[in-house]
Amino acid sequence: MLWTHSQPTPRPDGMHTIPCSGVDLVTIGTILTTGLIIDARLDARKLEATPTTLIERKFPRAGARIARRNGTYEFQIPKEFGPDAPCVNFTVEDHPEAYRADPSRPTLPLDLKVPSPSLPSLSKVPDAMYQYLRSSSCPQSIEAVIKSQKPMLYVHVSLFDDLTFIGVTSSHMGFDAVGTGTLLDAWTRLINGVSIDAIEGMPWDVQPFASFTAPTRVAKRRGWFDLGILSLMMFIAYAVWRRWRDPNEYRAFVRVPKSFLADEKRKIMEELKAKGSGEWVGSSDVLMAWWFKTALGYRVNDRSPFHLYIAANIRDTPVFLGQSTLETPYINNAIAAIRVPPLPVKAFHKKSLTELALHVRRAILAYNADLEGLRDTIRSRCANPFKIDFPCAPGGDYSFHTSWRVVGFGGLDFSGAVVGKQVKQANL
Q1: Which of 169, 174, 217, 268 is most buried per CB count within 10 Å?
Q2: pLDDT at site 118
Q3: Tens digit of pLDDT for each residue in 265-309?
Q4: Integer Cα distance of 306 and 285 in angstroms
Q5: Cα separations (Å) of 326 from 51, 171, 186?
Q6: CATH number at residue 352
Q7: 272 exposure class (CB count in 10 Å sphere: 0-12, 13-18, 19+)
Q8: What is the pLDDT, as a whole number, of residue 428?
Q9: pTM for the model
Q10: CA-to-CA distance for 157 and 94, rounded, in angstroms?
Q11: What integer pLDDT is reported at residue 6 of this predicted model?
């Protein structure tokens, strides 16, 4: 018998390489688009020039390619960016008229008519909106990202006389929501004249999860299920059956006024105080409790266990070397999941908003108090980067909930790129 040994693929010339961590690979199949709508016409040349400077000098990892080499996924970062090695895929479409001049265009979220401005409302998401946020060349799968051999970051700008769409698309392995917000905040500061030297960047070689790959005991990820063959077959069969029963997927804008949330939170806090309780809830707890009570409350006799996971930012948690938090901006995936103990679906009909909000808050407090449990979860993920764990057992329901108000997308300031506005020249 003739044995052949394939030679390892060498590191590509002119590239730094960083292996993707197990935390990155959790989101390997997700392509994330962050869409912004600015109510002014922006200068496309300024929009394009500033992220190039920013990435080259402060966030070189943002200009990486994603590749698979020797059986491992990695970021490949050009040692020198230039025409043959761009740091971002930047595309522009110019529509020389007002957006609302064509009534066939999708209705903007702020233009949606709601029954009452003080009460929550739901409106259908127009799928055609994505044409203004992603170019036709933007990949929609990790396989397409790798095959393109282009930067993982795509920025698409659609210009109108009265507003500008900005779509920022990347593999979730390269950016999570907090990482996207970090880059966009730095981008807008540069647009508004802040010196590039005053902007804190991310070194290309930072690897905060490297310490979790050292040989150690392999702990189970908290709240996840390792299904055997029979359970896996049942899980798949149940998922196919549910897809067959309800094949439609619905997207909607859910508008929840801050005044509504504040009022509901006030009622809950007054109720707890009247009972002599020292517990408390946050606005996000009330929002989640209200949403799932609204979405699942009609299933009054359903005993199926419902598993809720809440995305949580690891950056500010002291789980890294020396029990420290991250000391540098970090754009790649750094997200864990808070597991809320499961409830039967019918509980969302029977339990009060107060009970449900407290259930969520208690889970968050327990998560924050168990740092070693979080470290074990990260160790498990890094030691088994391709292991598939499941969010529930067969017959259960689950949901992943994100609430990235901390990212502050609504506070981004693109005014420095408004056409005709003069801004003090930044030190680039």
Answers
A1: 174
A2: 84
A3: 999 999 999 999 999 999 999 999 999 999 999 999 999 999 999
A4: 17
A5: 24, 22, 18
A6: 3.30.559
A7: middle
A8: 45
A9: 0.88
A10: 8
A11: 62
Alpha helices, H only, 94-224 = 142-148, 177-191
Residue 110 lies in a domain: no
Same domain, 61 and 203: yes
Measured between alpha carbons, how far is 307 from 396 in angstroms, rounded to an integer?
Answer: 7
Does residue 426 lie within any of the structural domains?
no
Task: Kindly report the CATH number assigned to the domain that includes residue 39.
Answer: 3.30.559.10
Residues 301 and 190 in one domain: no
State whether residue 205 is helix, strand or coil.
coil
- Dig out the tokens for 148 from the structure: 């393109």
Half-sphere exposure of 25 (CA within 13 A, CB side): 21
Task: With CA atoms as reference, report the closest residue to 223 among 319, 324, 305, 345.
Answer: 305
The boundaries of the domain holding residue 366 are 216-406
CA–CA distance from 277 to each of 63, 273, 352, 357, 361 (Å)? 51, 6, 16, 14, 14
Determine which helix (DSSP H) or strand (DSSP E) holds 169, and give its type and residue range: strand 164-171
**Cα gap 360→114, rounded to integer Å:** 29
Query: Does residue 182 share a domain with residue 326?
Result: no
Kindly give the pairing relationship between strand 164-171 and strand 154-159. antiparallel
Say if residue 42 is in the same domain as residue 59: yes
Which token pair is 271? 């109720």
- Per-residue confidence (pLDDT) for residue 268, from 0 to 100: 97
Whether residue 377 sits in one domain with residue 258: yes
Half-sphere exposure of 214 (CA within 13 A, CB side): 6
How are the residues of the chain apportioned to helix, strand and coil, as percentages rounded to the nearest 5?
35, 20, 45
**Residue stretches of the chain with pLDDT short of 50:** 1-5, 426-428
Instruction: Report d(CA 201, CA 204) in Å as an integer.
Output: 9
Run of H or E residues at 401 = strand 397-401
CA distance 139 to 42: 25
Question: Does one domain contain both 192 and 236?
Answer: no
Residue in 399, 400, 401, 395 with CA at minimum distance from that of residue 302 = 395
Residues 38, 183 share a domain: yes
Identify whether the C-beta of residue 360 lies closer than 8 Å to the C-beta of residue 401.
no
Inside any domain, residue 73: yes
